[in-house]
Design a protein that fits this description.
28 strands; binds dioxothiomolybdenum(VI) ion
Length: 677
């Protein structure tokens, strides 16, 4: 195996006028240097979402144009990682520079670059029911406010890395963290013009993904292409700095919300207008307005999304894309309205809950949002909350209590699972679906053990290999709801076959004696139920903060999350999903931000020392409770899955608690100490 190191652009906008690879090519150990002048051949995939997709629509090294700082402009291959990295720094590049746009205030909204045209529109983000203007005119209480979020970087513990291995020129094995090995298999096959079965993706474990490892990135495409040309196994590992530009971020957002309500608190008008940014080389809209028609009932409801192009890398899915920043704005605005009306914020939400999805016109199935609010309030002791700001103090610090709602749609895809009952009494469960650290191995093993009436230690689960039956995607918090129904079905079938073929008593003996084996493969897929119901999960966060005003020091002291996710398959891993998401939300609320240098266009934070997220010392005990019932309208296991919902509403709950503590409304994330002064 040989090693590749990326050469990346030092400017954010312009053109390569010369690229001198002489010194790099003759450096010790160097095997090859690829640039746009000798780029290995790849084809453009169809880029149909949910079929084959690459994150960055522009293929790597396709021309001399530079669209963002850190863009890949070359790959040096050498016998060791160190020699490849050294030689990569010997590549001399000259540019014709154009002024980059890296600040949203300077970007043009809704002016698509020629490459995209109509694709710039995000139709689902725009919706209107009733007449917002006249609804608002008739309201007794009105608030209008603008909320912003900063650019957040994907920073999973495990950096992006790939090994591409070719047997001859037509059989590719890729070892790469992938949330979706079957999609990745199709995509690499299209990129190289190969039948799908000639490509294998292997991802048994992932060290964190959160949306940035669902599809191939440019470095992966380049690695596989270079490996084919060289007929060598090639490994490429990205540095943290390279990841800031090349493996996705969550776009900054600016959201303006208007709420109009009657004196009793019932909403009559909601408007939600969103601006987010994308890259010149792909279109991604942070879909913040998706949650608006799902949360609160209002006869006059309007949502709008606008998009601007900046000279930055590709923004992408990042834990609850849309729902998370969307609820930051909406749940902050609901708190502002509650203060305006002098109504308890829990009461205001209970009063305005919608029983149907107002854009889709469908009733929600097994919705226990009100129960989340009531149970959370009770566990937290919400009834003791002082009705004034700056009313609670402890040890010389101001204390505030805040809450916010959570939601995330319940998704599910088709999955196939193979179950083998071995004669030695063990069972093997095989499917390509992934565990990206969520506990899928545990949930699949537990489910199978229960149906097969085996101790869980005797169940072996294999996941994350495209050779196995199609197990769907670990994205959109859908892996559990996708896999579990198929596991149930396959286990039931294999057990039936085994019992039918073998007399009951003989079957029990056989399990110990090791004489025969049975196998079944079963598939489960969503049916027509989505035409009758809107499937969505719900929750509420309650928290306490303390603020030392003299030094603007903020602590989150206490956290209660109550979630309604349908059937809980495993209490420990499900609660762990919520805790992890709350921690990530605390990072978003208080720490995470990426600015781009206005002169060179590069992120000014580019490693784990400069891009801050929480450590253990920043995190209080997080109490997690699940309420509700299995959602059998959704699937035979009643499971809706859990993951992304945990981060939704977290930042709003904190900002709302801060307002209660110090009487200052903060509408810009992250809430760093300067904003508290
Ligand atoms: Mo997630 S943002 O669907 O990996």
């Amino acid at each position: 195996m040989v090693h590749g190191y990326l050469v990346t652009a030092n400017i954010a906008h312009g053109q390569i006028t010369s690229i001198d690879t002489q010194a790099a090519a003759t450096a010790p150990g160097v095997i090859a240097v690829f640039t746009h002048k000798n780029a290995p051949t790849v084809f453009k995939p169809t880029n149909n979402f949910m079929k084959s997709k690459i994150y960055e629509a522009r293929l790597p090294l396709s021309d001399d144009q530079i669209h963002y700082a850190g863009q890949i402009i070359g790959l040096v291959v050498a016998d060791t990682f160190e020699r490849a990295r050294h030689a990569a720094h010997l590549v001399k590049v000259e540019y014709a520079t154009q002024e980059p746009i890296v600040e949203a205030s300077k970007a043009n909204f809704n002016e698509a670059p020629p490459m995209f045209g109509e694709q710039m529109k995000f139709e689902k983000g725009n919706f209107a029911a009733g007449d917002f203007a006249s609804g608002m005119a008739g309201a007794t209480a009105k608030i209008t406010a603008t909320y912003t979020t900063s650019t957040e970087l994907h920073a999973p513990m495990e950096p992006h890395a790939i090994i591409a291995h070719w047997q001859d020129a037509d059989t590719l094995t890729v070892y790469e963290p992938s949330q979706w090995v079957i999609g990745s298999q199709r995509t690499y096959a299209e990129l190289f013009g190969l039948p799908t079965e000639k490509v294998r993706i292997v991802t048994p474990f992932i060290g964190g993904a959160f949306g940035c490892k669902a599809f191939p990135w440019s470095h992966g495409i380049l690695c596989a292409a270079a490996a084919r040309q060289l007929q060598l196994s090639l490994k490429v590992v990205l540095s943290r700095r390279q990841m800031t530009a090349n493996t996705g971020h969550r776009s900054q957002t600016e959201q303006t919300i208007s709420l109009g309500a009657n004196a009793d608190g019932s909403l009559i008008a909601i408007d939600h207008a969103v601006k987010s940014c994308t890259s010149p080389v792909d279109v991604f809209t942070e879909p913040c307005t998706g949650i608006t028609p799902a949360m609160y009932a209002a006869p006059n409801l309007r949502t709008r999304q606008e998009l601007a192009v900046m000279n930055v890398g590709v923004p992408t899915f990042m834990r609850a894309p849309g729902e998370n920043p969307g609820l930051w704005a909406l749940e902050s605005a609901m708190d502002e309205l509650a203060w305006e009306l002098k109504i308890d914020p829990v009461e205001l939400r209970l009063k305005n809950e919608t029983k149907e999805h107002q854009r889709r016109g469908l009733p929600f199935s097994a919705k226990y949002f009100a129960e989340c609010l009531r149970v959370g309030a009770e566990q937290f002791g919400w009834q003791d909350r002082p009705k004034q700001v700056r009313a609670l103090t402890r040890d010389g610090q101001l204390i505030g209590w805040g809450m916010a709602a959570s939601t995330f749609p319940a998704l599910r895809s088709a999955a196939s699972v193979t179950v083998r009952l071995l004669a030695n009494g063990t069972a093997h469960i095989l499917t390509s679906g992934n565990d990206m650290g969520t506990g899928a191995y545990t949930v699949v093993a537990g489910t199978a053990a229960e149906v097969l009436e085996l101790p869980v230690e005797q169940v072996r689960v294999e996941l994350g290999d495209s050779l196995l039956p199609n197990g769907g995607m670990a994205g959109g918090s859908q892996m559990t709801a996708t896999l579990v129904p198929a596991v149930l079905k396959a286990c039931t079938e294999v057990l039936k076959t085994a019992k039918a073929t073998t007399a009951q008593e003989a079957f029990a003996t056989l399990r110990q004696s090791g004489e025969a084996a049975f196998e079944a493969t079963a598939s489960s897929a969503p049916g027509e139920e989505g035409k009758q119901w809107a499937f969505q999960s719900w929750g509420a966060h309650f928290c306490e903060v303390s603020v030392d005003e003299e030094i603007a020091r903020l602590r989150v002291n206490r956290w209660v999350s109550v979630m309604n996710i349908g059937q809980v398959m495993n209490a420990k891993t499900a609660a762990s999903q919520i805790r992890g998401a709350v921690i990530m939300g605390i990072g978003q609320a208080l720490m995470e931000e990426c600015h781009f240098d206005p002169n060179i266009g590069y992120p000014v934070v580019y490693d784990l020392a400069t891009y801050h997220f929480p450590t253990h010392a920043d995190i209080p005990r997080i109490q997690v409770t699940f309420v509700g019932e299995p959602d059998f309208n959704f699937n035979p296991a009643g499971v809706r899955g859990v993951g992304e919902i945990g981060i939704t509403g977290v930042s709003a709950a904190i900002a709302n608690a801060i307002y209660h503590a110090i009487g200052k409304r903060i509408r810009n994330l992250p809430i760093t100490p300067d904003k508290l002064l």
